[in-house]
Amino acid sequence: MASLVRTPMRWATATAVAVLLVAAACGGTTTSSSGTSFKGTRNIGLDIAITGQSALYGHAISQAVKLAAADLNASGGVAGYKMQADILDDGTDVNKAVENTRQLILQDNAAVLIGQVTSAQCQATSPISKQNKIIFMAATCNSYQLTTEPDLINPYYFSVVPNTYMEGTSAGTLVGKLPSVKNIFIVSPNYLFGRSETSAFVAQLKKSAPDDKIVNPQSTWYVPYPTNPRWDSTIAAIQASNPKPDLIYSNIFAADQENFIKQALAVDPNFFQKYPMTTLSSVDDLNALQSSYPLGMHLYMRAPFFSLTNSKLTAYINHYRATYNGEYPSDWAVMDYDAVMTWAKAANAAGSLDSDKVSKQLAGHTFSSLRGYNFTLRTQDHQANVGETVGTTSNASGSKYPFPTLSPVTNLSGNNIIMPLDLVQELQAGQCEQGGKPTTTDFALCPSWKG
Q1: CA distances from 369 to 67, 92, 235, 386 (A)
Q2: pTM of this prediction?
Q3: Which of the four pLDDT bands, split at 50, 70 and 90, describes residue 446?
């Protein structure tokens, strides 16, 4: 499998391989073991968290990108080139993500970049992609500002993940339909993603259930990110809240979500029966805690394989598990594989790795996905109309999987949750920063508007 993973312990080997990579990329042909002749080798650049807070997700993402590279090479490569997964570890650190992204572009000659885990990282690295005219495929980081805020708009940035507007809208719709919920306690990470998704949740909740109340002051909604691994003060605040919350809304994830759940259950084994939770989650989060993951949690998920059954996904699950010692593919393994394949289809259609030519084959075009539906990358903001899955954790699958699944479950169409174009255009025009009078009801998302 063609890949190059670089962490400090592997640097000497990686450097030797990188020299060979540069030589191959500069000219000459290579031949695969199957007899396919390639023009040379180019990199799929992936800066991701192999260590740190988001390592749980980075593990699956890196495996998916390596698998995609191998599958592309087995089918003839991309625009005549053999592809290699060039993977650098950022430890979920923004500064390291910037350093790695520059290396992937300027030293490693990456043909495409696959986005990082957090929106803070993508906020810092997307401008580097723009400056160097390298396609940036976002499959995990997802703040809607990355495609709508004037100083962040990047013509080479494409999102195949539901953005925070779409997820916040999904969560707000889900909670609005829960008849027993009237009082809600918010806990979210204090950076672009957390603020963005929470704002969208609150805006949708006001429409779906206008009588519902947020019981904790807005000044306490956001916890520092990366968080301290101890959640004692947050757990105590939830228990002391008056009125008592009927539900916790959160979008904490990876190690933060795992620590919060473990520590809350240690304080009170019935914590999540008393305070049910609506939160962003993934197969990785479910699998990390397995039978300890609480039942009755109201989750919104990006691509849970067990709820998106189709023949193409089934084949991928079997392929992934056979390659990676029986592991189940997480949401990230599904979406990042889709991201690489979407870029490859566009590059093959362009007959070139040139980003301007590939971009023309991405914007406005429709692609198949492992998720069982086709999606289109909208011309105006390069956001795909991908769906979201919502449901409640249960043991409905019995012993089929080592973790809870969702029952009941609803797969929401991306067409029903994607940001309306009039709002996209207002945000891209800078009306949020200017504080002008809104012309769309969703302008409550704009924090500068006080009307």
Answers
A1: 15, 27, 39, 10
A2: 0.90
A3: low
